[in-house]
Amino acid sequence: MLSLFFLCLCLKSHICFGADTITANQSLSGDQTIVSAGGKFELGFFEAGNTANYYIGMWYYKKLVPDQTIVWVANRVQPVSDRFSSELRISDGNLVLFNESKTPIWATNVSSSSASFIHVVLLDNGNLALRAGSLPLWQSFDQPAHTFLPESKLGFNNVTKRTQLLTSWKNSEDPAPGPFSLELDATSNSFIIKWNRSQQYWTTGFWDQSRHRFSLLSEMLMPNHIFNFRYVTNENESYFTYSLYGANITSRLIMDVSGQVKQLSWLHTGGWKLLWIQPKNHCDVYGLCGAFSRCSEKPLPLCNCLNGYEPKSKVDWDLQDYSLGCSRKTRLQCGNVTGVDGMSDRFIEMSSRLSSEDIQIQNLTYVHSIEDCESICLNDCNCTAYGYSSSSSECSTWKGDMWADENGRTLYIRTAASDYKNPTSNVMLIGRKRTIVIATVSATAGLLTIVFGHFLWKNTLGKRSETIKNLSAAGVENDTELPLYSLRSILVATNNFSEANKLGEGGFGPVYKGILPENQEVAIKRLSKKSGQGQQEFMNELKLIAKLQHTNLVRLLGCCIEAEEMILVYEYMPNRSLDKFLFDPSEKTKLDWGRRFRIIEGIAQGLLYIHKYSRLRIIHRDLKASNILLDGTMNPKISDFGMAKIFDINQTEANTNRVVGTYGYMSPEYARYGHFSEKSDVFSFGVLLLEIVSGKKNAVFYRSERSLTLAGWAWDLWNEGRGIEVIDASIREIFQAHEALRCIHVGLLCVQESAADRPTMASVIHMLQGNEATSLPPTKEPAFSTQKNFSAIGSSQRSTNYSNNALTISLPEAR
Ligand SMILES: *[C@@H]1O[C@H](CO)[C@@H](O)[C@H](O)[C@H]1NC(C)=O
Ligand SMILES: *[C@@H]1O[C@H](CO)[C@@H](O)[C@H](O)[C@H]1NC(C)=O
Ligand SMILES: *[C@@H]1O[C@H](CO)[C@@H](O)[C@H](O)[C@H]1NC(C)=O
Ligand SMILES: *[C@@H]1O[C@H](CO)[C@@H](O)[C@H](O)[C@H]1NC(C)=O
Ligand SMILES: *[C@@H]1O[C@H](CO)[C@@H](O)[C@H](O)[C@H]1NC(C)=O
Ligand SMILES: *[C@@H]1O[C@H](CO)[C@@H](O)[C@H](O)[C@H]1NC(C)=O
Ligand SMILES: *[C@@H]1O[C@H](CO)[C@@H](O)[C@H](O)[C@H]1NC(C)=O
Ligand SMILES: *[C@@H]1O[C@H](CO)[C@@H](O)[C@H](O)[C@H]1NC(C)=O
Ligand SMILES: *[C@@H]1O[C@H](CO)[C@@H](O)[C@H](O)[C@H]1NC(C)=O
Ligand SMILES: *[C@@H]1O[C@H](CO)[C@@H](O)[C@H](O)[C@H]1NC(C)=O
């Protein structure tokens, strides 16, 4: 009724109901809106929360998305309170918002010489375009708020020097720019999230043109029918953009108030579905908990003040707004030893992401011991924290607020003696899952002590020797010692991580060849710096592999944790990885049948060891050709334990809500339900075995007509009595037919749909070594060999974006 009335009143100076354009003599105010021609987006005044603050904004047209979802805001910092006496109109060739007192509070700010037929039109892709006739003058796509819409660009224009970046809202009811921003780092061709426009805490990794993805953004690996990603970089501009394959899909990417990037899609059944989120952990968001506070995912609350500190604003804190952080409960004695209890200030240990480049650094001196460093800080009344590096003798002191971060360097925070609890209560449990173990550095011995318990202990006394004492008092056992390399020696060994030394790029960072003194050749894996990713995997790998000793497992020689670097040092494998031979037509002939069979046996022995005979029971979870390294004599060694999981001795299976692994090698129960066991490794082994015998990549079958998987193809031939045709043509001249056929048979047994049908590694070895007389059980149809059971994991063999199956993926956590 009302809208009909409004339609009749469509005056010349006002917007017509349903129009998509504002022309020179029209204005928009009150409840008036414009709607894009195809009914996708709507623009007008909106109220943020229940604040009575009004903003000019854009949202999805309500027939498409009934819950008003703001995608763009014009006057982010200056709202109006009376939208009926405020107006948006064209003035002096610009789109201008006038407030109640007719003062311009927001404008497009373009200078145009041509003033003919200036108008603004709302397009169906969510772009608001100011034009003079058909000449573009300005567009909202160039000034995004917190939403990155399909078809818009996010990046840097080298001609206009303009940058598009997303900034979070201040809070859910205030669209003013908040502390978090997503922007392009043109020098590294990556997107990064920064706090306060300065502190980077997350990155997508560089754009890898050949794989068509950002190197650290695992979400982009999922085969999908939804997004078509594109990254363009040339001398004029660098930007990232994406489009949607389906015309009726509604999807958006936002820089959320939580400091996380989210991709959301509107469900036809109603509601926004979260497709992915990064960083996954709240605590990986810098600055979330404010100063002198510590973040932990569990138990709630997310943020807790350090001992001796209390929330600056209890009200905000209780509303879960932690950004103001904490302040000291008791004034520092500041050298006044005649003070409260005759004690000087003490220090509590905290991890901080602060690096020496940070502005808060007050003084950097070189002293011989941590005690000397501590007394420098004590003697300076303004010093709030110090950090000490024993390898470089650097003593850094800071003033002002300190920001905690689990993955950062260790700092000692000043606190009043009266707030300093007795040391045992200050022993701190760290680590998110209470299963990982802290590595304590023993400075004098140059050794890293890895403690395998169920808890993480850290001392708070600032004296490293006491850490060890506390640990033994806590009854932690099974220490393993591992050489600790200094960063300096790693830099020398790799020639400053030179490109020439680079061996390749693993899931969590590049791998370099290094030469240690005494000419020992090593492989050095450098975990991506500042990525906030992979640290958990780092600890996992350290903890696991340091304990494993087997001729078919790659050996960890040591590590380096210094500054912001996390580095692993492995024995060097001159023949690199199996895939380099197997899938390269010019190299594969080097792998004759005898070598292939020995490689299969070696991998099987290595797996049996981690499943059964090591002191821990380990599921590798990411077995694939590129993770099998070959030594000088082509002896295979399993590597990359970053994804591995330890089982209790009595545990046989487990679930994870974080599915990691590589498509094509993942067992159906793992890919579908995150359910893993030794049998999921057996499945991957079966795929790998068939690859070794056939010389064919499992991945290429996703696009082939005959069969969807390598196993399906081999099974078809096998059933037709043509098993010999499965064998790599390049070795078909000379091979042991019975051995090769036996391998195919075992491979097919390993990739069966039901985990219960698959053999254990012990029986795999038994079957591989069996003589001709040993009969093997018949095999059932492999998993994923038909369209029906393959599509059940929600992916497709026909994806155009899914170009590289040999990479490790990590699916978002189910929520
Ligand atoms: C806008 O108003 C001006 C002066 O009032 C008039 O000259 C002009 O023709 C009008 N333009 C349109 C498109 O109605
Ligand atoms: C309109 O904006 C101007 C400039 O910011 C401001 O001084 C004035 O108070 C605003 N008017 C109202 C009614 O808020
Ligand atoms: C327009 O310019 C003014 C003054 O330079 C500035 O405050 C305002 O943010 C600019 N508006 C836009 C949309 O860039
Ligand atoms: C945030 O950035 C501003 C400007 O770069 C700086 O002055 C301020 O100190 C920063 N805030 C904190 C808490 O670091
Ligand atoms: C940007 O343009 C300048 C010249 O205007 C050029 O020197 C520079 O290389 C360009 N930057 C990139 C990243 O292409
Ligand atoms: C960059 O801009 C110049 C001038 O507009 C144009 O001639 C050139 O083709 C552009 N380069 C690319 C790669 O688009
Ligand atoms: C829109 O999407 C739904 C669900 O994916 C589909 O069933 C429907 O056919 C699509 N409609 C059009 C017009 O593409
Ligand atoms: C030291 O502490 C005592 C007791 O709190 C106080 O009376 C005295 O003024 C303090 N001295 C200084 C220099 O702060
Ligand atoms: C840094 O600390 C040293 C040792 O306490 C002191 O001698 C020096 O004056 C300090 N420098 C500054 C700039 O505070
Ligand atoms: C501590 O800071 C205050 C205020 O910034 C300054 O006046 C004073 O000189 C500083 N004291 C020292 C020892 O640096």
Please describe what this structure looks like.
The chain is built from 15 helices and 53 strands. Mean pLDDT is 77; it is low at 1-11, 355-359, 422-479 and 787-815. It is globular, with a radius of gyration of 31 Å. The longest helix has 21 residues, at 593-613. Helices cover 17% and strands 30% of the residues. Among the domains are: 9-143, Agglutinin, subunit A (Orthogonal Prism), CATH 2.90.10; 434-572, Phosphorylase Kinase, domain 1; 575-803, Orthogonal Bundle (Transferase(Phosphotransferase), domain 1). The chain has a five-stranded antiparallel sheet, covered by helices on one side. A five-stranded antiparallel sheet has the order 41-42-43-45-44, with helices on both faces. It is α+β, with helices and mostly antiparallel strands.
The strand count comes to 53
Give me the oligomer status: single chain
Portion in strands: 25-35%
Could you name the ranges where pLDDT drops below 50 across 5 or more consecutive residues?
Answer: 1-11, 355-359, 422-479, 787-815
CATH topology of the domain at 575-803: Transferase(Phosphotransferase), domain 1
Across the major sheet, the strand order is 31-35-33-34-32
Shape field: globular
CATH class descriptor name of the domain at 575-803: Mainly Alpha
Assign a percent range to the helix content. Answer: 10-25%
CATH superfamily of the domain at 575-803: Transferase(Phosphotransferase) domain 1
Give a quick account of the main beta sheet: strands, pairing sense, barrel closure.
Answer: 5 strands, antiparallel
Q: Count every helix, treating DSSP H or I runs of 4 or more residues as helices.
A: 15
Task: Say which molecules are bound, naming each kind only once.
Answer: 2-acetamido-2-deoxy-beta-D-glucopyranose
The secondary-structure class comes to alpha+beta
Family: Belongs to the protein kinase superfamily. Ser/Thr protein kinase family.
Signal peptide: 1-18
EC number: 2.7.11.1
Catalytic activity: L-threonyl-[protein] + ATP = O-phospho-L-threonyl-[protein] + ADP + H(+); L-seryl-[protein] + ATP = O-phospho-L-seryl-[protein] + ADP + H(+)
